[in-house]
User: What shape does this take?
Amino acid sequence: MAVEFSLAAILQSNMVIQQAKPFSLWGTAPVGDTISLAGDWTKTNVSVVADATGHWKGQLPVPAAKPHDFTPHTITIIHRGRRVELSNVLIGEVWVCSGQSNMDMEMKPALPWLRGVLNHEQEIAGANHPEIRFINIENSFKKTPQENAKGTWIICSPATAGDLSGVAYYYGRELLQKLKVPVGLVVSSVGGSACQAWTSREALEADAAVKAKYLTPYLESPQAQESLDSVKTLEKLFEVLARPTLLYNAMIYPLRQLSIKGFLWYQGESNKNDGSAYTRLCTAMLQGWRKDFNQGDLPFYYVQVTPYNWEENDSTATYYARFREAQEAMLQVKNTGMAVTMNIGEVKDIHPRNKKDVGLRLARIALAKTYGQSKTVNMGPKLKSFTRSGATVKVTFKPESLGAGITTTDGQAPRHFYVAGKDQVFHPAEAKIIRNEVWLTSDKVKEPVAVRYAFTNYPITNLANNDGLPAMPFRTDTWDK
Assistant: This one.
């Protein structure tokens, strides 16, 4: 069957292309055909030839974006005299935003009985930002990697912003306001999805422990032989969204040749019982993405899961805390950053409405780590050490996490500190802020040897720095349950 000319589906008018990095264009054409590529910002035309498989790819040099330059550009692709133009293209910063429902949660309520993002009516009404463009990748799951994904690039306006991920919107708006350059947001997220579903088979196989836990059991199960056409019920859909590789194949692999700045990730609820295994799984996913996109160690900024009671009302349960600990361990991977949300959760709602602070916290990380704004405080108080003086424990925090100093967001004493003696039994501690330290005492623990802070499933915290960024949960012990 003859190969016809095509342009990759994600390459469209109204898109944002990544500044200061070669921009790839690709597609199909009859073997040996020549395709000419040109951008109106350069006088140089690039010619490429379709290879023996009927695929072609070329790159256009892209200049650095200039602040306040929102000039619309045109890209021209010519094949056998047929001219395809991508118009109203902006040069700026492009981020892929992925994960499950808290990334997927749009500004407006997705269904009439759901809640939208906090203050969404007013926020959407003011969302007149034509310099922000977004594309929602259509939900899909496939057993084999796909070359194209469906979606349409959209200009952000009060008429369209309701359809954009709340986290992505606030992140993009903050970058626009701080950098003064266009922002493109590629939203590829699915509610209820598990991390392994977003991970390539190659990446899952590269780590023996990850392969044994996530890939091999699936491949040896009857599920691996099922036709995906049999997915007809919501229950079956959620089961499929935990299967390895299926979302990666349909919603990440097709994006791999797109020039981007980095990734945002808000996921974990569906892996909440994985504990420390999640660190290796998510690392494998990221390493696979970076290899596929082939643009170096692309930034990966993610959200630590928000307090939620999982309808259990067990204030002593710690499996979600251990999962957060596994997420924090991802910070050991180069070029990563974690937004903490311990003070903006909703204990009885897995989808907290305050997505503004989530997006802004991610933007702080990017501005500090990616965009060189080193004075931007991008983390809350993070444990440095603790010392004991009699029955008092003194907790100190890393200087770079203190900002202008520590405080509580409600004027009350810090909550959710616990201390334990050699018996390994934790008791609530009375906490006081002394300068930039927290001093702890408990009349039930005369000789404390360990401290835990917010190390339960759903503590809504109040300890923060003066920039409003919450303290990171921690424990100083390595004890089992």
